[in-house]
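Record Ankyrin repeat domain-containing protein, 167 aa.
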Amino acid sequence: MRNVFIILTLLVSLCSTVHAAQPNTATNSSSEQSTALNTQYENLLAYYFAAARTDESDVIEQFVHGGIPINSINIKGYTALMIATYHGNKNSVNTLLQLGANACLEDNRGNTALMAAIFRGEFSIAKTLVSQQCDTEHQNKAGQTAQQFAETFGQQKIIALLNQVKK
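=>
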């Protein structure tokens, strides 16, 4: 219930800012209005990513149904799916995938959600992500594939899983 209140408060605040940004308002310049809207939107995204980090699937659903683009990225290029994966939040990962999150997107370093699962040793999440039909031969900006990532981090179960997918 607290989460719903927070989201509603943020949305009302955003709507108030939009209303205040109407052309008839002589007190605010266009750039100030735009800055205020961007700040409000960035705050909403921060809460969206926090929900992914803390495994609050119901809040994620509310954000997506409220209009937040599911594949939004933060400054590092992380999506909510990548964040949920990195923190081992299987419920949020499943929710995001069911809502249409793209498991194949890359962060600023070219890493995918699958690579985050490999790095963190999250086998069950890696298994879910492998089933999303992303290119397992994709290379990040360091030239590593998911298989090489798994070898680097000693993830034998994931190496076996990736070998099964290749067959």
